Amino acid sequence: MKLKPRRGLSMPDPLVSLIDVVFFLLVFFMLVGRMDATAPFDVAPPISVLGEDLPTGGLTVSVGADGRMALDGVEFDKPALVARLAELHESQPDLLVRVNAHGGLRLSVLLPLVADIEAAGIGDVVLVVTPNPT
Q1: How far apart are CA 29 and CA 26, in angstroms?
Q2: 37-85, pLDDT tens digit by residue?
Q3: Angle 8-14-16 from CA coordinates, rounded to 5°
Q4: How does pLDDT run across 8-33, given as a tens digit for each residue?
Q5: Residues 101 and 63: beta-carbon distance below 8 Å
Q6: Which of 4, 32, 62, 66 could crosslink 70 through cysteines, CB 3.0-4.6 Å?
Q7: Contact 119, 108 (CB under 8 A)
Q8: Between the CA atoms of 122, 123, 124 and 130, what dihedral angle is there, to the nearest 10 degrees?
Q9: Are 61 and 97 within 8 A, CB to CB?
Q10: CATH number for the domain formed by residue range(s) 59-127
C-alpha cells in the first residue's frame, strides 16, 4: 500500500511580497518623518550678525574653557563678578557688557552667567563670536 505524502499549506508568494513592502514602507516613514514636537506658536530663532563691529565702550567678561571668569582682565568668581556688575550698573545705567567665552565652554556654564548678568539689571549683553573661516 502506497500512501501519498500530504502537501503542507504554503502562503502564496504575492502575499509574502506585500507584507515585505508594507514593513519597508513602515521603516522608511519612521526614519524620514519628524518625531519632534512642534510649538503651538510661531518661533523665530535668532539670527547672528557677522561682519559688524562690536559696540564700543562697556566691559568685557571673559570665560575660560575651565569656567574661570574675569572682568576686564581681573579674575573674579561668579558671585563677585555679578555683584561688581550690579555695582557698576548703578552708576552707569546704560552699561554694555560683552561676554567673550571660550569655544569649548559648555552652555550649562554660559547661559546661567548671562541670565545672572541680566538679573543684575544690565540689559545690553553681547556675545562675542568668531566667524567660521570657511
Answers
A1: 5
A2: 666 666 666 666 666 666 677 888 888 888 889 988 889 899 999 999 9
A3: 70
A4: 666 556 666 788 888 889 888 888 77
A5: yes
A6: 62
A7: no
A8: 90
A9: yes
A10: 3.30.420.270
